[in-house]
Amino acid sequence: MPWKFTNSYLTRKENLTGNSCEIEFKVLRYKDIALINFPAVKTFYDIYYGKFEGISKDCNNEEYVFKDVYGIIEDKFTIW
Predict the structure, then answer these.
(1) Handedness of CA 8, 9, 15, 17 (dihedral sign)
(2) pLDDT in tens, the chain (80 residues)
(3) Which of 4, 57, 63, 68 is the most buried (most CB within 10 A)?
(4) How many domains does the chain fold into?
């Protein structure tokens, strides 16, 4: 199931620039990075490899369309 990221000036008051985007990330490969364990800190990593697809608009209403842009998303959890 793809991850979806959206942002719109119509629904978020704090986004005063007027930028908006609708991006989807499709996971192609998942890599679990084990626990990094130090005496005062524990960190867990999950890395997802995949591709991005979507539309982004800037404050001048210029539209940028992209498809099959490969990248990663990192999910990190740290305990102090």
Answers:
(1) positive
(2) 788 887 765 555 555 555 678 899 999 988 777 677 778 888 888 888 999 999 888 777 788 999 999 999 888 888 88
(3) 57
(4) 1
Say whether pTM exceeds 0.70: no
Q: Which amino acid is at 1?
A: M
Residue type, position 62, single letter: E
Cα–Cα nearest to 26, from 44, 7, 3:
3
Burial (CB count <10 Å: 0-12, 13-18, 19+), residue 20: buried
